[in-house]
Amino acid sequence: MQTDFTPAQLADKDMASSEAVIRKCVHCGFCTATCPTYVLLGDELDSPRGRIYLIKDMLENERIPGEDVVKHIDRCLSCLSCMTTCPSGVNYMHLVDHARAYIEKNYRRPWPERALRAVVAAILPNPARFRAALALARLARPLAPFLAQVKPLRPAAAMLQLAPERLPPKPSADAPVSPPGSRGRVVLMQGCAEPVLRPETRAATMRLLERCGYQVSFAQGEECCGALTHHMGKEALALQSARRNVDAWTREIEKGLEAIVITASGCGTTVKDYGFMLRHDPAYAAKAAKVSALAKDVSEVLQAAGLPPVVSIPSLTVAYHPPCSIQHGQRITTAPQSLLREAGFTVRLPADSHLCCGSAGTYNIFQPEIAGQLGARKAETITALKPDVVATGNIGCAVQIGQHMATPVVHIVELLDWATGGPAPAALAPAKT
Ligand code: SF4
Ligand code: SF4
Question: Which of 29, 192, 206, 217 is most buried when burial is the number of CB atoms within 10 A of its CB?
Answer without folding.
Answer: 192
